[in-house]
């Protein structure tokens, strides 16, 4: 009975082995070793050390990174459209031209206004220069009039005083000429004559003495000349003193009286003339008033000229602003592409009236595309900017594209608890098009690890994951710590070393320490 049970067990395992799927020699699963020992028949695979990739798998639709809607900035009819849907455009390429004839006319009108304003500025500047000269001349005239007034006033006052003094002196001389001098005055005159006589004699004596000294060579001629002059001066003073004495002794003479009367009359006329000159002060005052009026007029003319210049300058600025606006409008009739891409939509046709509202061309940039993937909140913390992503699209089977995480949205969905991650994918060949369905794997980590077949896993009596290791002809159960798991393999972080034989078939009926027999030929898993 026992023999029959053993035979049935062997046949059952053989049937399982025969039904187990066989792998080709070039698969990446661990090797299967065949051993023909007595015991429970099992299959084994060698645990291998390989690169382990930990990733998050996401899906989404391809979208363009940049999409631009080109529209008109001015209202004008379309005269030219350079591209159609699907055609490639360069950045800065002229794609639409509107009719600019109306704006060209505005440019010419503004240019004419600028020339007119510039001419007005030149005229205003010339007028200002003339007004400045007139204003300066008026100020000079005012200054001259003020100076003349001061001089006239000073001269008039001085002339009157001088004339009054001359008249008083002339009258005093007339009184002297008419009346004899008193005895005391005669005595004074005699003393003056005596004094003058003494001075003359002393001067004559000095002159004679120095004449002798010069003749003998004891004195210089220049010294003698000085004494000769002193003698002459003393002689003139003596003659004058004698004349005064004679006048004092004989009293006034008729001729002297007539001369004195004439001097009095002349002094009176001079006083009248000096008095009449004071009227010139009023004339000079009127001149100042007129000069001040001239200054005010010149200043007003200068102000008007400056206002004219300011007005002309304002007109020039307005004309320049009008020209700049018209030139900008002309420039706005040319519509250029702001990026390099492909025309996805064309709404403009020749002859169409296009205005600032509405889109005429839609251009998408395909050098870099992206798709937005949903990442669970339990894994979003592991995703960082710049992480590599492998992208595949159903429309291009067998092709893989390298991308990277370009943006992490800060908020998630309250319903799904997912966060959106934008993945940028270079598309230099422009094979990826907006709208394609994409799948991506966000690579979180790459490391070396021990891999075993996922079928080898069993649950221990404690409910933990374990595997059986073929140690010669004995099955050794080991508890394991798992890492990255795929559809076929599992990473053993702890419990199994590379090169050990892991039982992958027949392990479910084994116990720790059971006798085993590895069957079948070597198969690479």
Q: What is the gist of this entry?
A:
With 525 residues, the chain is of the alpha+beta class. It is 45% helix and 29% strand. Strands 3, 4, 6, 9, 11, 12, 13, 14, 15, 19 and 20 form an eleven-stranded antiparallel sheet that branches. A four-stranded antiparallel sheet has the order 8-7-5-10.
Structural overview:
The chain contains six helices and 23 strands. It is an alpha+beta fold and 525 residues long. The strands form five sheets. Strands 3, 4, 6, 9, 11, 12, 13, 14, 15, 19 and 20 form an eleven-stranded antiparallel sheet that branches. Strands 8-7-5-10 form a four-stranded antiparallel sheet. It has a three-stranded mixed sheet with strand order 21-2-22, with helices on one face. It is elongated, with a radius of gyration of 67 Å. The chain starts with a helix and ends with a strand.
Number of strands: 23
Helix content: 40-55%
Largest sheet: 11 strands, antiparallel
What is the first-to-last residue Cα distance? 38 Å
Separate helix tally: 6
Q: What best-fitting shape do the alpha-carbon axes yield? A: elongated
Low-confidence runs (pLDDT<50, min 5 residues)? 1-37
What gyration radius follows from the Cα positions, in whole Å?
A: 67 Å
Strand content: 25-35%
């Amino acid at each position: 009975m026992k023999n029959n049970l053993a035979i049935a067990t062997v046949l059952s395992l053989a049937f399982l082995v025969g039904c187990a799927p066989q792998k080709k020699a070039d698969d990446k699963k661990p090797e299967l070793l065949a051993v023909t020992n007595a015991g429970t028949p099992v299959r084994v695979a060698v645990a291998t050390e390989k690169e382990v990739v930990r990733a998050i798998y996401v899906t989404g639709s391809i979208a363009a990174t940049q999409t631009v809607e080109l529209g008109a900035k001015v209202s004008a009819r379309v005269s030219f459209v350079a591209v159609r849907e699907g055609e490639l455009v360069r950045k800065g390429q002229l794609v639409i031209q509107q009719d600019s004839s109306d704006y060209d006319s505005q440019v010419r009108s503004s240019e004419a206004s600028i020339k007119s304003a510039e001419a007005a500025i030149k005229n205003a500047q010339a007028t200002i220069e003339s007004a400045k000269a007139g204003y300066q001349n008026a100020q000079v005239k005012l200054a001259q009039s003020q100076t003349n007034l001061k001089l006239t006033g000073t001269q008039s006052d001085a002339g009157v005083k001088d004339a009054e003094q001359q008249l008083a002196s002339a009258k005093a001389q007339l009184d002297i000429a008419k009346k004899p001098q008193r005895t005391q005055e005669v005595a004074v005159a005699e003393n003056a004559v005596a004094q003058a006589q003494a001075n003359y004699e002393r001067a004559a004596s000095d002159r004679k003495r120095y004449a002798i000294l010069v003749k003998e060579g004891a004195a210089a001629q220049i010294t003698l000349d000085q004494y000769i002059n002193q003698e002459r001066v003393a002689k003139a003073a003596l003659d004058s003193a004698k004349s005064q004495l004679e006048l004092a002794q004989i009293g006034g003479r008729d001729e002297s009286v007539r001369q004195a009367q004439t001097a009095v009359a002349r002094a009176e006329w001079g006083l009248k003339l000096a008095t009449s000159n004071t009227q010139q002060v009023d004339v000079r005052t009127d001149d100042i008033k007129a000069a001040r009026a001239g200054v005010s007029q010149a200043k007003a003319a200068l102000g008007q000229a400056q206002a004219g210049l300011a007005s002309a300058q304002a007109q020039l600025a307005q004309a320049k602003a009008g020209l700049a606006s018209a030139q900008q409008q002309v420039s706005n009739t040319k519509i250029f592409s702001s990026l390099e891409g492909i025309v996805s939509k064309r709404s403009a046709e020749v002859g169409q009236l296009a205005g600032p509202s509405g889109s005429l061309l839609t251009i998408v940039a395909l050098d870099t595309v992206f798709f937005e993937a949903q990442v669970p909140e339990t894994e979003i913390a592991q995703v960082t900017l710049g992480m590599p992503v492998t992208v595949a699209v159903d429309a291009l089977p067998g092709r893989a594209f390298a991308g990277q995480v370009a943006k992490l949205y800060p908020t998630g969905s309250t319903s799904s608890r997912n966060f959106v991650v934008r993945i940028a994918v270079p598309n230099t060949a422009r094979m990826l098009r907006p709208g394609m369905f994409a799948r991506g794997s966000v690579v979180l980590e790459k490391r070396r690890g021990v891999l075993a077949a996922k079928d080898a896993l069993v649950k221990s009596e404690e409910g933990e994951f374990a595997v059986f290791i073929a140690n010669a002809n004995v099955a050794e159960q080991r508890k394991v710590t798992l890492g990255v798991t795929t559809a076929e393999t599992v990473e053993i972080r702890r419990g199994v070393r590379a090169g050990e034989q892991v039982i992958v078939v027949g392990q479910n009926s084994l116990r720790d320490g059971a006798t085993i027999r590895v069957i079948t030929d070597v198969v690479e898993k």
